[in-house]
C-alpha cells in the first residue's frame, strides 16, 4: 500500500508539522519573555561606559577592540564614539545608524527600544575620560540583561525541549486515543464473535471518519455479516437435510432388518436391491443438498466465461435422450437464434438438466418436452415446457423453495431440491426464473439471463 495515499499517514504528518510549528513559535516567544522578565541582573550602562573608557585609555584602539570582543561574548555589541566617530568599528542595524547622529548630538543618557516587542535595546552613555575628553558609549543588546549568547541558546533549547515534550505528549495522546478507540472496538467485536455471538458488529466507530481504521471496521462488519449468513444457512441446510434423511434412513433400516430375517436367498436379494435403491436416493439427495448449499453460500467455485446457450441446450437434450426414451417422451430443441451469456457453463448445465429432468418425469407417455431459446432487450430466455398435469396456480410460487413438493409430487420421485437449485443458479448469474401453466396443459419454466456484453445474435 502506498503510504502517500493513506489518510492516516497525512493525519499524522499534519499533526507533526503543527507541533513543530507551535514549538518553534512559542519556544522563541517564551524564551525572549523569560530572558526579559525573569533575569534580575540588568545592564549597568554607566559602569559599562566607564569600563570601555578605561580599556581605551590603557590599550588604545587595540585595547578597546579586545574589550568589545569580551562584551560581544556577553551578548552586547558596544564601542566608544569620539567627536561623532567610532573609535572601534561596530555593526549596527541601518535604522539605528540613521538615528545615531541625533542621539549623539543630544549629549545625554539614552536607552530605548526602536521596535516594540523586538527585544533590542540601544544605549548611548556619555563618559569623560582621564584626559578630560568627552566620549560616548554606543551599545546594542538583544535583552536588557547581560546574557551570553550560549546561555541564551541553552535557554531556548530547554524551552523548546519542554514544549516539544508537552505538545508531543498531548498530540500523541489524542492520536493514540483516536487509533485505540476503533482498535478496541474491533477487539471487542472479535472476542464476542469468538465466544459465539455472530451478531457482533463494530458499527464504524469514530463518527464520519473515512481513514484506514474506519475502512477496516467496515470490512470487519461485512465479513461478520457474511459469516453469520453462511453459518445460519449451513445450520438451516443441516436441519433440513437431517429432517429429509430421517425417512429414507428409517426405510433402509427396515429393509436391512427384513433382509436379515429372510430365510430364502431370493427374498433377501430383493430386499438388498431395495436397499441399494434407497442408498442411491440418499446419495443423490446429499449431492443436491451440497450443490444447493454452495449456491446459497455464494460459493459456486467457478470462473465466469462466455457460454453459448444454444449449444448448451442441445447437449442437455442429448444427455436426456436415454431417460426420455425409457419413458416414451420426445425431447425437442427450438432455438430461433443463438445467444451468449457470461457465467459458469457447469452451473447452467446443472440447472438445465434439472429442468429437463423434471419435465420428463411429469410428462405422459408419448408426450413431448420442448426446450426453447429466445433473446430480446438484452435478455436471453430459456423455457422448458412439458405436457404433463401442470401445477395448481396457488403452488406456482412455492415450487422453487427447497424440499417443497406440490400436490402432484406423487407422480414422480424427487426431493424438492431441483428447482431450488435452478433459482439459485439464476440469481448467481443475475437472472430470474419463473413457472406458469402453459396453454393446452403442462408446465412451462422460463429461465431469463442477461446477455453477455457485446453479444450479437446472428
Automatic annotation (TrEMBL):
Membrane-spanning parts: 12-30, 155-176
Gene source species: Rhodanobacter glycinis
Keyword Cell inner membrane: no
Residue ranges occupied by any HAMP domain in the UniProt entry: 177-232
Gene Ontology terms, MF aspect: phosphorelay sensor kinase activity
Record localization: Membrane
Protein name: histidine kinase
Main subcellular location: membrane
A Pfam family of this chain: HAMP
Enzyme Commission (EC) number: 2.7.13.3
Cellular-component GO terms for this entry: plasma membrane
Keyword set, alphabetical order: Kinase, Membrane, Phosphoprotein, Transferase, Transmembrane, Transmembrane helix, Two-component regulatory system
Amino acid at each position: 500500500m502506498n503510504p502517500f495515499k493513506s489518510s492516516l499517514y497525512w493525519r499524522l504528518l499534519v499533526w507533526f508539522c503543527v507541533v513543530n510549528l507551535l514549538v518553534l513559535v512559542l519556544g522563541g516567544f517564551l524564551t525572549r519573555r523569560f530572558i526579559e522578565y525573569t533575569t534580575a541582573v540588568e545592564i549597568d550602562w554607566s559602569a559599562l561606559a566607564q569600563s570601555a573608557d578605561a580599556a581605551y585609555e590603557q590599550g588604545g584602539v587595540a585595547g578597546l577592540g579586545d574589550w568589545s570582543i569580551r562584551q560581544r561574548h556577553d551578548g552586547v555589541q558596544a564601542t566608544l564614539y569620539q567627536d561623532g566617530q567610532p573609535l572601534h568599528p561596530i555593526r549596527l542595524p541601518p535604522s539605528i545608524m540613521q538615528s545615531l547622529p541625533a542621539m549623539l548630538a543630544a549629549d545625554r543618557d539614552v536607552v530605548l527600544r526602536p521596535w516594540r516587542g523586538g527585544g533590542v535595546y540601544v544605549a548611548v552613555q556619555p563618559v569623560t575620560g582621564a584626559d578630560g575628553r568627552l566620549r560616548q558609549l554606543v551599545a546594542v543588546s538583544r535583552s536588557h540583561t547581560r546574557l551570553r549568547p550560549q546561555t541564551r541558546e541553552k535557554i531556548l533549547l530547554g524551552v523548546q525541549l519542554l514544549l516539544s515534550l508537552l505538545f508531543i505528549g498531548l498530540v500523541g495522546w489524542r492520536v493514540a486515543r483516536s487509533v485505540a478507540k476503533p482498535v478496541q472496538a474491533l477487539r471487542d467485536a472479535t472476542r464476542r464473535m469468538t465466544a459465539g455471538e455472530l451478531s457482533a458488529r463494530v458499527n464504524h466507530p469514530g463518527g464520519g471518519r473515512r481513514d484506514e481504521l474506519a475502512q477496516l471496521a467496515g470490512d470487519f462488519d461485512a465479513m461478520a455479516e457474511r459469516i453469520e449468513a453462511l453459518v445460519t444457512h449451513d445450520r438451516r441446510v443441516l436441519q433440513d437435510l437431517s429432517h429429509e434423511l430421517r425417512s429414507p434412513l428409517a426405510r433402509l433400516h427396515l429393509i436391512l432388518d427384513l433382509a436379515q430375517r429372510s430365510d430364502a436367498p431370493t427374498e433377501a436379494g430383493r430386499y438388498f436391491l431395495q436397499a441399494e435403491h434407497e442408498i442411491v436416493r440418499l446419495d443423490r439427495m446429499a449431492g443436491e443438498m451440497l450443490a444447493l448449499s454452495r449456491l446459497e453460500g455464494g460459493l459456486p467455485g467457478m470462473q465466469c466465461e462466455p457460454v453459448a446457450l444454444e449449444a448448451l441446450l442441445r447437449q442437455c437434450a442429448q444427455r436426456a435422450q436415454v431417460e426420455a426414451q425409457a419413458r416414451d417422451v420426445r425431447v425437442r430443441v427450438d432455438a430461433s437464434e443463438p445467444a451468449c451469456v457470461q457465467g459458469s457453463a457447469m452451473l447452467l448445465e446443472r440447472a438445465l438438466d434439472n429442468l429437463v429432468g423434471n419435465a420428463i418425469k411429469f410428462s405422459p407417455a408419448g408426450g413431448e418436452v420442448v426446450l426453447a431459446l429466445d433473446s430480446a432487450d438484452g435478455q436471453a430466455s430459456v423455457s422448458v415446457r412439458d405436457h404433463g398435469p401442470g401445477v395448481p396456480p396457488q403452488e406456482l410460487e412455492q415450487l422453487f423453495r427447497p424440499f417443497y413438493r406440490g400436490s402432484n409430487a406423487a407422480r414422480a420421485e424427487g426431493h424438492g431440491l431441483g428447482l431450488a437449485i435452478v433459482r439459485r443458479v439464476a440469481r448467481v448469474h443475475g437472472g430470474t426464473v419463473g413457472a406458469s401453466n402453459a396453454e393446452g396443459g403442462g408446465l412451462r419454466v422460463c429461465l431469463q439471463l442477461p446477455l453477455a456484453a457485446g453479444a450479437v445474435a446472428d
